[in-house]
Amino acid sequence: MMKKGVQMAYYYHTIAGPIGATLGYSNRTKEPYFFINLGYEF
């Protein structure tokens, strides 16, 4: 089975660090997903 999907993301740089949101869909899970990211990754 071939994996296919779409994703949209937006990030904004603030004084406290980047803030972002990601919304997507994958045919493997057949469910949409949503992530919110706050700050830097270490």
TrEMBL record:
- Tell me where in this chain the OMP85-like membrane spanning beta-barrel domain is found: 3-42
InterPro entries (UniProt xref): Omp85-like_dom
**Superkingdom of origin:** Bacteria
Protein name stated in the entry: NTE family protein
